[in-house]
Amino acid sequence: MSWWHRLRSRLRPVPESVKTGTRAPLEPGATPDVSRLPPTRSSPPAFIKRVATRRSGEQIAADEFIDDDFDQDRDPGRALERLRQRASGESHRGRAGAWSPTNESEPFDCGLGVHREIEVRAFVEATSRLEYNNGQEHDVFFDPDSGRVVKLTRPGKFGAKGGPQEYLQRLAWSNEFFDDDWLVEGWLRYPNEAAPRVVTSQPWYRVNPDRPMPTMAEIDAYMWRVGFLKAYDGAWIHSKREIVATDALPKNFVIDVSGFIQPIDLILYTPGDEPWDRLQNMARNLPQVGARFS
Fold first, then answer.
1. What SS3 class is residue 150?
2. Distance from C-alpha of 180 to C-alpha of 268, rounded to nearest angstrom
């Protein structure tokens, strides 16, 4: 079992709809039912505290923030729209793949200004007591109090592909296609690092210890039912939109204790014309095995 599956195996309260029997568990070898619960849209972990701002030259305490739009700020789709509005007319800003060393004095150069800054001291003090793992794209903390996984991107980086717009788009698509609850909590910059990190959070699932990962056949059924066509093992194209999902392999899925498949960190992106044509041709020539589950 990988570190991610061990990490996700810790206890998390079972949703009420599962307790009441509205979602039946998956029997070994059975076809997965990919009907999903609505996203939880839960509150951020308590240790995520925003930095106070100055207004009209006055010092504002952190607890004096007006929170009317904070939930909206956390939604990656709306954050993406604000970032696009900010980036319009600003050349390559907002799409840079990494932090620009020439602009280290301006923390909003790569578009992070659309999010709230997080207090580094409070974050470090709280996360020092949490279970931690170092992933390929993120540093990951498990917060048992909120039941969420807290993720930090690499300094000045934005996941596997592209810049901040592509990263937020990936989060928004994950919520849309997989009913995830991936939210943007803000950004922070450690004193010993040259660039900031994006801080996000996702729900924590209690993983089935006896069968933590689905089979490839179950992944095929899941991806087909949420609207994707298979190009080859691990790579899928959306049936109606020019979107590619890669890394869709057993290591990036879990089966929760209720028997439902949960994708983890699939890479979603819009390809160039040539790769898109090639993937479409591959999908046309491959029998779509998920069709037997219709």
1. strand
2. 13
DSSP letter (8 states) at residue 237: E
Domain membership of residue 119 (yes or no) is: yes
pTM: 0.72
To the nearest 5 percent, what fractions of the chain are helix, strand and coil? Answer: 30, 20, 50
Structural domain for 91, as ranges: 42-203
> Average pLDDT of each block of 10 consecutive residues along the chain (294 residues)?
44 35 39 40 70 50 43 79 74 39 45 78 88 82 89 86 87 93 91 90 89 94 94 95 95 92 91 95 86 44
Same domain, 187 and 220: no
Other Cβ atoms closer than 10 A to 146: 18
Same structural domain, 108 and 161: yes
Residues 192 and 220 in one domain: no
Residue at token pair 């479409």:
280
Tell me the CA end-to-end span of the chain in Å, nearest whole number: 31
Q: Which of 180, 203, 226 is the last residue of a domain?
A: 203
Distance separating alpha carbons of residues 186 and 74, to the nearest angstrom? 8
What pLDDT is recorded for position 216? 94
Q: Per-residue b/e over 193-220, b at no fewer than 16 CB within 10 Å? A: eebbbbbbbbbbbbbbeeebbbeeebbb
| Count helices and strands in the chain by DSSP H and E runs | 8, 13
What was the pLDDT predicted at 277? 96
Cβ neighbour number for residue 241 with a 10 Å cutoff: 11
The pLDDT value recorded for residue 237 is 97
Whether residue 110 sits in one domain with residue 224: no
